[in-house]
Write a structure and sequence with these properties.
The chain is α/β, with parallel strands linked by helices. The strands form 4 sheets. A 5-stranded mixed beta sheet has the order 1-9-6-2-5, with helices on both faces. It starts with a strand and ends with a strand. The model has no long low-confidence stretch (mean pLDDT 96).
């Protein structure tokens, strides 16, 4: 049974004064307006931190009440920074079962009302307890991955700098992105160290924001063709290779198989670059270029909107911003907008038929790959 994305709604990502429910409702109402507010019989919502004015939010029933969806069925999901991808997969599978006709999928996060130290500690909840006990943080482990990747392929940090330049250039075309101005490679290289070789402009920012999608049964301009997810060892010391993400490779293989497509048929991607070097790792793990070749693709501009493989036309996580639970759904939403011809000034040069979104939980411990395609309504 076919399922398609009928509408996408998103507010601006960045530092927002609104609370979690307000952010989620804003995106949800935009998505609902896109379908003329037709009835919704399934609400799937995701958030990781669930901050509210009085402590932890009971996110799902509060959102359902705000949207007057008390008659719908509902589920709340959480897979850290992969939550948005998980929410989309859950809704698509439930609609595909025939039990529901139309789903509203919402993913949101409120983060900027907390200090950087508190957010860093909360995000570390997606890491192995032994790593947290020894003081590991997300940027620290991402730096280890980056070191291993650069060493394996004989690359310098200039490759990471170019990936950040690309992300910010794409974000400057996205009116909802956290960052609206491009940066130069020199500015990236001069930004303050976070966990070397990672510097500030290699890392995603703490952001507020939400994205919502409406899914309907049947075919449309952004039809779900393939879904795949994969796990890897939670503790990175237990992994055979730190320069590649097994969870992405497994998820991609399953998504290609379910879509009956090969990697050569994917025309553009949105990948989860919580740290800019991860964008290079991801397109290699997705099989879209050879191992160690991604840096060359960024250098040659082949990942730009008019290149061979447009990567993160939304700006990605580094450029668009990272309200953690929302990012995975924003990636799927961007693919849908490109396929539906609704991407505006960030539309890629060639009207695509197939796009792919990849979401990542933690340091790639649970990843999701979603393939959408343009099909006749």
């Amino acid at each position: 049974m076919s399922v398609h994305v009928a509408s996408v709604g998103t507010g601006r990502y960045g530092k927002r004064p609104e609370g979690l429910i307000d952010l989620a409702a804003e995106a949800a109402n935009l998505a609902l307006e896109g379908i003329g507010r037709k009835p919704i019989d399934l609400l799937v919502a995701g958030t990781m931190l669930a901050h509210g004015p009085y402590g932890t939010e009971t996110f799902l029933p509060r959102l359902a009440s705000r949207l007057s969806l008390e008659s719908a069925s509902g589920f709340r999901v959480d897979s850290a920074s992969g939550t948005g991808g998980m929410a989309f997969h859950a809704a698509a599978l439930l609609l595909g079962s025939g039990r529901f006709d139309r789903a509203l999928v919402v993913a949101a996060e409120k983060m900027t009302d907390q200090s950087t130290a508190i957010v860093t500690r909360e995000l570390a909840a997606s890491l192995h307890t032994s790593e947290v006990a020894h003081g590991a943080t997300m940027p620290a482990l991402a730096a280890l991955v980056t070191q291993r990747y650069l060493a394996r392929h004989g690359l310098g940090t200039e490759a990471c700098d170019l990936a950040s330049v690309h992300a910010r250039a794409m974000a400057a075309r996205n009116p909802n992105a956290h960052f609206q101005k491009p940066v130069t490679a020199a500015e990236v290289a001069a930004s303050r160290p976070v966990a070397l070789p990672l510097r500030l402009l290699h890392c995603s920012a703490i952001s507020d924001g939400a994205t919502a999608l409406v899914l309907e049964r049947g075919k449309g301009p952004a039809t779900v063709l393939g879904l795949g997810q994969g796990f890897d060892a939670l503790r990175i010391a237990d992994r055979a290779d730190l320069s590649s993400f097994l969870a992405t490779r497994v998820a991609a293989r399953r998504a290609y198989e379910s879509a009956h497509l090969t990697r050569k048929e994917v025309e553009f991607v949105e990948v989860h670059d919580a740290f800019s070097p991860f964008s290079m790792i991801h397109i290699e793990d997705l099989g879209l270029c050879g191992s160690g070749e991604a840096a060359h693709w960024f250098e040659k501009g082949w990942v730009r909107p008019d290149g061979r493989l447009p990567v993160n036309p939304s700006g990605g996580v580094v450029g668009r911003g990272h309200p953690v639970a929302a990012s995975g759904l924003a990636e799927v939403g961007e693919v849908a907008l490109q396929l539906r011809g609704e991407a505006g000034r960030r539309a890629i040069a060639r009207a695509p038929k197939v796009g792919l979104a990849q979401a990542m939980s933690g340091i790639a411990s649970h990843n999701f790959v979603t393939i959408l395609g343009r099909e006749a309504a």
